[in-house]
Amino acid sequence: MIHETSCGAVVFRQDQGALKFVLIRQINGRHYGFPKGHMEVGETELQTAYREIKEETGLDVQLIPNARAETNYAPRFRVRKKVIYFLARAADDHVTAQPEEVSDILWLDEDEVLDKLTYNNDKEVFRLLLDHLKHGLDMM
């Protein structure tokens, strides 16, 4: 069995009092999800999340370390993948898609995110981290 770990974040910003969230679509995928990617040797979870967000979206973010969610799944036969997500506040709304990997980036409100996400594990991660965000659990 091969074990892989990726890290990323539910990236948000406030837009005139409303929360907006980033979703990306990978070039080779048909679904939208959150920015994430494989950990490199010597990186921490937070370093990986920050690097992947910057590479895939061009955004500078402030990661919120104690707002964390984890999901596990099998992307291929004999492969188990763990994905760790954090909340991340974007410094601004200017995005630049990584041309080799990302075909689309969207800023969406809460309801639009839930409608656009394909996978239930992504929806659960979003709901959990949204709850942290809305209740301000030692994050700001």
Can you describe what's shown?
With 140 residues, this protein is α+β, with helices and mostly antiparallel strands. The chain has a single domain, classed as Nucleoside Triphosphate Pyrophosphohydrolase. Helix content is 26%, strand content 45%. The protein is built from three helices and seven strands, in the order E-E-E-E-H-E-E-E-H-H. Strands 1, 2, 3, 4, 5, 6 and 7 form a seven-stranded mixed β-sheet that branches. The longest helix is centred in the last third of the chain and has 16 residues. The radius of gyration is 14 Å and the shape is globular.
- CATH architecture group name: Alpha-Beta Complex
Main sheet summary: 7 strands, mixed
The strand count comes to 7
Number of folding domains?
Answer: 1
Structural class: alpha+beta
- Tally of individual helices: 3
- Assess the beta-strand content as a share of residues: over 45%
Q: How would the global form be characterised?
A: globular
Helix/strand order, N-terminal first:
EEEEHEEEHH
Q: Remind me, CATH topology? A: Nucleoside Triphosphate Pyrophosphohydrolase
Helix content estimate: 25-40%
Summary tags:
Nucleoside Triphosphate Pyrophosphohydrolase, alpha+beta, 3 helices, 140 residues
